[in-house]
Amino acid sequence: MRTFLFKIVTVVLVLFTIVPLALAQDKAEWVARQVDQRDTGRDASLEMEMHLVDKKGIQRLRRLFIVRKNFGGSDKFFLKFTYPNDIEGTAFLVWEHEDDDSERFLFLPEIGRVRRIASREKDENFAGTDFSYEDIS
Fold first, then answer.
1. Prediction pTM value
2. Which of 36, 109, 111, 137 is deepest in the core (most CB within 10 A)?
3. Is 32 in contact with 52 (CB distance < 8 Å)?
4. What are the tens digits of pLDDT across the range 63-88?
5. How far apart are the first and last CA of the chain?
6. Beta-strand (E) ranges in the chain?
């Protein structure tokens, strides 16, 4: 009798544990698909703040302006820092091609030059953050 009761309790616990996890996974996959397939519109612009926190808890504020424009077969994504002074004017352009790899360019105002970000560099850190160039793209 004890073994039978143990088996029933085990089956009930497994059902109450696995079924909700499976349903949660299905819902998570559904949400991920919805986000991936969403209509992001043709064009967008926004101003935002980025709060960077280092390991010691010291916070740095950065402000930036972002524009995304759709050109039919390609999209362009432009980001420009507006604050603080040491990074102000630094800009990043991503030119996404429908049938090819994206092109990435970084403008550094202190040297007055545009630097192309090679495909092999797309996983490097962007502007002192934990984000990579690919993440920002």
1. 0.64
2. 137
3. no
4. 999 998 888 778 888 999 999 999 99
5. 62
6. 44-53, 59-70, 74-83, 91-97, 103-108, 113-117
**Which residues on adjacent β-strands are paired with residue 43?**
none
Of 4-18, 42-56, 57-71, which range is least confident? 4-18
Give 75's contacts (C-beta < 8 A, 6+ positions apart): 68, 69, 95, 96
Asked if 84 and 118 touch (Cβ cutoff 8 Å), the reply is: no
Q: How far is CA 5 from the centre of its chain?
A: 50
CB 137 within 8 A of CB 92: no
Average model confidence (pLDDT) for the chain? 80
Please state whether beta strands 103-108 and 74-83 pair in parallel, antiparallel, or not at all (unpaired): unpaired
Give Cα 135 to chain centroid, integer Å: 5
- Which has the closest alpha carbon to 94: 73, 67, 72? 67
